[in-house]
Protein 1
Amino acid sequence: MSHFGRSGPPDIRDTFSLLVLNITFRTAADDLFPLFDRCGKVVDIFIPRDKRTGESRGFAFVRYKYADEAQMAVERLDGRNVDGRDIMVQFAKYGPNAERIHKGRIVEVFPKSRGRSRSYSPRRRYRDDYDRDYRRRSRSRERYYDRDRYRGKERDYRYRSRSRSLSPDYNHGRGRGREYDNPRSRSRSYDSASPARRSLSPRKSRSLSRSPSDRNESPRKRSPEWSPSLASLSPRRRPADSRSPSPNDSTDGY
DNA sequence: GTTGAGCGTT
């Protein structure tokens, strides 16, 4: 996916990965290639996509053959406006070049064979570090996706995520926020007490005039080609099947 | 037709 015609990492021998952030969701690898190829030899471009929706996550990985060219790409393309949005180019943490990167900064990368390391300006990186620390709040949100995926609700993940972000004090005012981290407590809340959900989903009045099965069917298909994909990617699994054989399973067995 | 902090595929 998002490669130049090959599946998986083509040849990662001495490539240097760059992380391109803040790109649009419609930006493809083909759009980034002509831009990044100007700075040097681009080996591969990979854009992670969401497993559920299939769209890009808004960032890409550009692999360069040489480190100095990658460094130049960071200096030149960082902050460049691509498709109406300012992208952010920085060295990736994971990858074959992770060993040579120390805390997001290059330790020793300037092969003498190339001798083109004159474009390096450390003053620029200070701004990036400050900018990076400023926006650094949460680290991972895919975990929430995984947990919600097992619940069979893929539309509530965004709403709950926003509600948590919008009201962080609610977690603290509750005395113990650990209860919300516990899947058992959350399941119990959904079964017995969930006033917010009831107000937001007045299915009662709607079921009188419309059958619940009709809610499952959308009046207008958004993407016909995605319908079978979503059906096969995230089918409705039974709790016994989705549960893994772990000692915590005793809660499910009740 | 949608959102916007972050770190990756067979």
Note: Strands of chain A lie at 16-21, 42-46, 60-64, 81-82, 85-86, 88-91, 101-102, 105-106.
Protein 2
Amino acid sequence: MPELPEVETTAQLLGPALVGSTIVDVQLSWPRHTPDPERLIRELPGHAVRDLGRRGKYLVVGLEPSDRTLFVHLGMSGRLTVRPADALPDPYARTVFVLQDGRQWRFADPRKFGRVLLVADPEEVTGRLGPEPLAGEFTADWLAAGMAARRRAVKPLLLQQRFLAGLGNIYADEALHRAGVSPRRAADSLKTGEVVRLWESIREVLNEAIAHHGTSLDWVYPDGGMQELLRVYGRAGKPCLACGTPVEREVLAQRSTHYCPRCQPG
DNA sequence: CCACCGTCCTGGCTGC
DNA sequence: TGCAGCCAGGACGGTG
């Protein structure tokens, strides 16, 4: 998916276009995107966008006058755009929020793995998420304690959103490479220095990706500039940028995993 | 707690 | 050129 940096980029790009706009209609061509389509159609119109934020990989839309919250998860292929009233239709626009001035806020999602959720209590969604990697709550000490309590391999642990919110397959691989930690290492086997390096690497790679508007993905962010800065993801067989050893790819926990066998031993 | 599998979906790429 | 098969950024639920 779109991971944390891509969602953050989306929130920053859409904020100026959406904040203050009122939603007057909701059109669903793929109702399964949302658990209760009729409720969405009934309750959302009339609300204005108060603010736009992000939590983990969710776009968080604060609404007024009621204090309901709209969450959008982009899944694997979701893309959010705001288009003029007379824009050509998008065959992949599964949900269209029509704004008062006629513009269309579109959720296009070819693979249909995305989600749209309207809730009264945001905790219904955020309560199942681990800490924000870029917030103060995510400290090296917290990471060390969390890892020490888990025996599973470190990469699948980093992908678990209830452990830490926002990392996906690309940035998990990148963070582990920067930290010099093998994705297969048991979480509780990392030494303190390795945990600290991993903590720094996670924050570094996410901040860098946000600065470059995320990574180019087929359906999502064709202009993301992080693509060329990836060191292992998608580079199987190519030399590690640090040591020249060919990058390896293997499947770990059902996910393709890229790493340098020399920089990330074990 | 954890490894592993299936499921939800479609489009693009690869190789025959 | 055509096309079947394989692959993909996520996440959940079930099983052992």
Note: The first helix of chain A runs from residue 4 to 18.
